[in-house]
């Protein structure tokens, strides 16, 4: 009897430092796909919300401290799990050069604003939304980009926008931006993995 060989799926690792809402969306999205699977989540914070979410979703999770990232432990874990592609989702450490060199062009990040505005070191979470409101912007959104050795400087792959309302607070703006993240990030990651244009 002839059997068809199952196509090998790409293995994704998610790097996360926070609550893990984007990580959870990514896991659920790829469970319905044949292109890739989330095989590992790495976090630098043992008390992060992402740990509880991944436990519920039964996704392998490893804690690697900031020092251990610098010393190469994270790269060793990525090799152990045969990871092909990295997705940053609220990851607050700078990715070490050793990982950048091991995964050239295979690491993407999402930023909660329209780069090149409101990017760089220290610009994450509500810090970004506060800056957007303080600047009087009428529009914000998300940027999905490849990463390089500089914060928020890699090639932009995709952007989506949302309005900034006159009565917005950082929290209300964040909620609107989060919806863009959940809607677009998994699909853009899949497009990049498949070598397709992420301009969806």
From TrEMBL:
Formyl transferase N-terminal domain span: 10-189
Catalytic activity, EC: 2.1.2.2
GO molecular function: phosphoribosylglycinamide formyltransferase activity
Keyword Nucleotide-binding belongs to the record: no
Keywords per UniProt: Purine biosynthesis, Transferase
UniProt keyword annotation of Transferase present: yes
Signal peptide: none
Pathway(s) of this molecule: Purine metabolism; IMP biosynthesis via de novo pathway; N(2)-formyl-N(1)-(5-phospho-D-ribosyl)glycinamide from N(1)-(5-phospho-D-ribosyl)glycinamide (10-formyl THF route): step 1/1
InterPro entries, sorted: Formyl_transf_N, Formyl_transf_N_sf, GART
GO biological process, one term: 'de novo' IMP biosynthetic process
HAMAP family for the chain: PurN
Protein name as annotated: phosphoribosylglycinamide formyltransferase 1
Protein source organism: gut metagenome
